[in-house]
Design goal:
Keywords: Carboxypeptidase, Hydrolase, Protease
Mean pLDDT: 88
InterPro entries: Carb-bd-like_fold
Oligomer: single chain
Organism: Sulfidibacter corallicola
GO molecular function: carbohydrate binding; carboxypeptidase activity
Protein name: Carboxypeptidase regulatory-like domain-containing protein
Distance between the termini: 44 Å
Amino acid sequence: MEILRNRTPHGMAIRALAIAALSTLLAIHTWAQSPKDDHVVALPGLSATVLYDVPSSEPLGLGIPTDMALDPLSGDLFIGQFERNILRLNPDTLQVEAIDFGTEALGFAADGTMYFGVQNFILGAWFREADIFRKFAVIPSVKGVEFAPDGRMFVAEGNFGPSGLFPDTVLEVDRGDGFFRPVWDTIAAEAQLGVGLDAMAALGIDDAGILYVTYHTGELIKQRADGSYISLNLRAGRIGGLNEGRIDFADGLMYQFDSSTGQVFAIGEDEVARLLLYSDALIGVRSSANAVTTDGRNLYVAGDFETLWRVTATDGSPLSDVITIDRGAGTVTGTITILFSDQPLADAEIRFQNGVSTVTDADGNFQVDLGAGLYEASVSKQDFISRFLNLEVLPGETTRIDLALNPGLPESLAPGLGAEVLARKSTDQFSGSSDIFMDHQGNLYSMNFASGNITKHILDPETRAHVRSYVFATGGNLFNSFIVTVDADLNVYASTGNDGVMCLPPRDTEETYILTSDPQDPTIVRDENGVNRVISLVRDVDGIAILSNGDLIFSSGSGGAPIPGLPEGTTNSLVRHRNGVETIYSRGIPAAGGQSLFQNNDILKPDAQDRLMLGMRTGDVARVDTNGVAELIWPGDGTGKPDGLGAFTGLNADVDGNLFVRGDTGDGSTSVFRMISPDGENLLTVASGMSQCFGGFAFDRGGRDVIISENELIIRIFTLDGRTIAQNLLDPPGPSVTKRGPRIRLLATPHRINPHPEL
């Protein structure tokens, strides 16, 4: 058994970009396939092989594919790569060329016309007979281009980049005049399903013309023929807090690729998911963006791992013939225990991706019969960290699962450290905690993207024990906000999804802010008294820092856009907000000049000297001085260093200026919390085996404690000897206990978790 874990002007800049007929083809080349170990676990009768694996460092290499489509006339594969190009690849000869447009989505009409998003600005088209590229419609943030069987064109408009008329909506687009109308209602889907849906990621259409949409939260939503919505095969995995899976259809099956977990599924008309293949080789390194397409006999998948895979039936038959056959039945049995104690865990739920589930008995045992094939199993219970694994059920045989659920603590700690759960979802009114900020009174604010709220956690000023929690704010697109910051006057700042920044003044009572986004203008967010709380229209803000003089600095990533006062745009910039006036603080240019260090800059924290530390999508960590000059502190790919860092690495400094980082290891094998050594050459591990690879943290008690957002928990790591965490790392009290395990991070020998010495 394998275990894994309507046209409208949008400004002169866009129109000027769009009117030119732009077509630049790079050199054409044919690449030979390089040998690579095929360790993909596939459903019996399927085979997965590497088709193309030219690294991103090459002009015709694979970087981060964001969509893929087959040309209906030539059979060539067109692979869109955001901020890079479109690769055109012949799957048989491997002849490849590049078209100099970066795109997140593309699709072909039956006559061979290709429509594609041009960066975040417009919908472009390649008219094959004239071989020209032109603007087709002003639709920003194109996330999907698909065609119904009757030839109608549909485009998914996200909310990343310049604000459009219909963010997070599917548009039916007239191929004759380019006019469009919305045919999808995200707000209605949210109300019907009771979930927050923000940041549309991809679009699909099945053989009956039914629409499907994915969101950055891992949701896959189907719009049934009666107009109702249903959620299918929710993906819980994240890379840098996102799950940007792609889908495609053929022969009555939808293919869904999740590169955060390295899995490919097929979903039929019965709305049941079937696992087709899985592998560590299919897991993205620094991004969950990926691409998938099929012609019914070949399935192509690519992601942030510089490899294009082709999946076929071993006998050459259509994929659907292999996927839908009856393989008999088998049994899955096992025992679930509690990590660190080995005690049996009763009432834990074991759920499989096809909807079958069972619970453990008083002794932690379970048994269930399943059809033979590959499965994803989740094991969960309230107040424990859920586990996910893959397994194969063979006909007439029994497959056993024995594993331990973690009550919420890191699986390994550095010597001299202890850990405890400070707050949890079941009692403290939050879910999906992604950031933590400690105000000057010593209380905590957590941003919770899953529950779409900000929770305030009151700590005892003397003992630092958790006293109580309450919801400070809810609604207002907080489902797509990952950060929270508080100033000296206790004003709370957060992003409004990708549409701007809001400020919530303190209240004398524990009354919750009830926030509502204007459905006609997402840049307006009103509280329950009708007051608009938006203070800035800077887009794609995933980091807010406050300087000692009170200035606000916003980290605006690749989704930045022109705003009033900044017609040049805020993309990949730090923006200063002072008394309502906004200026560029830094473009990420180093002292020696040259190329910007900012690549979809994200998390942002200040140090005691007002220098700004920020993380990138690439995993790079940079520091910006008070003059806006940038310096690379640690490369995300680990070049010249002992290890790399994961996408959107979280960071913060303790009171002594030691820089800590939180994310994945360079190879993505485990989620860790580490400190960069004072000489900048090493990473010292504080804790490993964390439940998520992103999130904020804050220091307490002069650096002796660190409080960490950990999805459905907030945990505290503390020292046992009264020294700071940094001192314990630099002068350890004993041998290291850090262990490294498989992807699901099961420990062979659980370590003891010590109580806080002052509680």
